Amino acid sequence: MTSVTPNPTSADKAQATIDAHSQEFLVFSLGDEEYAVDILKVQEIRGYENVTRIANAPAFIKGVTNLRGVIVPIVDLRIKFNLENVEYGGQTVVIVVNVADRIVGIVVDGVSDVMTLTPEQIKPAPEFGVTLSSDYLSGLGSLEDRMLVLVDIDKLLTSEEMALVDSTAAK
Amino acid sequence: MDISDFYETFFEEAEELLGDMERHLLDLDVDDPDPEQLNAIFRAAHSIKGGAGTFGFLVLQETTHILENLLDHTRRGELSLRRDIVDTFLEAKDMLHDQLDAYRNGAEPDPEAFERICRTLKQLALDELGKSMGSDPPSAASAGAADKASPEPPAPAPRDDDTADAQGGDQAPSGAGSDKGGEGGDPRLQVALLKVGEKDRQLLVEELGQLGEVVAQSGDEQRYVVEMTTTVGRDDIEAVMCFIIEPEQLEITPLGESAPSAGNEPGAGAPARAEPQEAPAAAPVEPARAPSAAPAAREDKGGKTRAAPKGNKAKGGSESSSIRVPVDKVDQIINLVGELIITQAMLDQTASEIDGVTHSALHNGLNLLKRNARDLQESVMSIRMMPMDYVFSRFPRLVRDLAAKLDKEIELVTEGKSTELDKSLIERIIDPLTHLVRNSLDHGIESPEAREAAGKPRTGQLTLSAQHQGGNILIEVIDDGAGLSRERILAKAHSNGLNVSDTMSDDEVWQLIFAPGFSTAEQVSDVSGRGVGMDVVKRNIQSMGGHVEIMSRPGEGTTTRIVLPLTLAILDGMSIKVGEEVFILPLGAVLESLQPSREDLYSMAGDDLLLKVRDEYLPVIALHQVLDVAEARTEITECIVVIVQGEGRRYALVVDDLIGQQQVVVKNLETNYRKVPGISAATILGDGSVALILDIVDLHRLSRRKSNPRAAVTTSSIQEVHPS
Question: Which NCBIfam families does the UniProt record give (chain A) (predicted)?
Answer without folding.
Answer: PRK10612.1 (NF007903)
